[in-house]
Amino acid sequence: MYEHSAPASWRIALPHSAAAVPVARALVRTALADIEHAADSDTAELLTAELVANAVEHTSGDDPIELVVELRSGGCQVEVHDPDPCPPGSLTRPDPAGPPDPWQEHGRGLLLIRTLSSSCGHRPTESGKAVWFTLPALPRPRPA
């Protein structure tokens, strides 16, 4: 393992289909695997899967979705770019309808991202929007 000081990033185009979700999870897992004190990879995988699944479900067309993973000294940032310029509903603010029904199968992705990330948001891009989250680096273990 090595410790990183300068940001490193990965960018990959994913198919506009459900097959993009496991590919995105694997990329995030691989990106974080060899970095000492990287962000929690389980949380990063979960939140990445939510962003990619939302991009596939809520955008139309066959244009690819782009995944960007940036490793930073303080953790990581993951972005998902899609062709729809409309901002995601309740990413940066609670859903006005209230919490999701506990028996409902959908509607928790943005809540998970808001709750588990250290920050999240969205921004317009030339071809649509980018939705992102950041996770802090894991604390260094105390010397024995």
Short description:
It is built from three helices and five strands. It has 144 residues and is α+β, with helices and mostly antiparallel strands.
Overview of this protein structure:
This protein has 144 residues and is an alpha+beta fold. The protein has a single domain (12-98, 105-136), classed as 2-Layer Sandwich (Heat Shock Protein 90). It is built from three helices and five strands. It has helices at residues 20-33, 41-58, 109-116; strands spanning 8-14, 65-72, 75-82, 119-125, 128-136. A hairpin with a 2-residue loop joins strand 2 and strand 3 (75-82).
CATH class: Alpha Beta
Can you give the mean pLDDT?
84
Fill in the CATH topology. Answer: Heat Shock Protein 90
Strand adjacency order, main sheet = 1-2-3-5-4
Q: What class would the helix/strand composition place it in?
A: alpha+beta
Q: Helix amount, in percent?
A: 25-40%
CATH architect. name: 2-Layer Sandwich
Give the topology, please.
Blueprint: E1 8-14, H1 20-33, H2 41-58, E2 65-72, E3 75-82, H3 109-116, E4 119-125, E5 128-136
Antiparallel strand pairs: 1-2, 2-3, 3-5, 4-5
Task: State the main characteristics.
five-stranded antiparallel β-sheet, 144 residues, alpha+beta
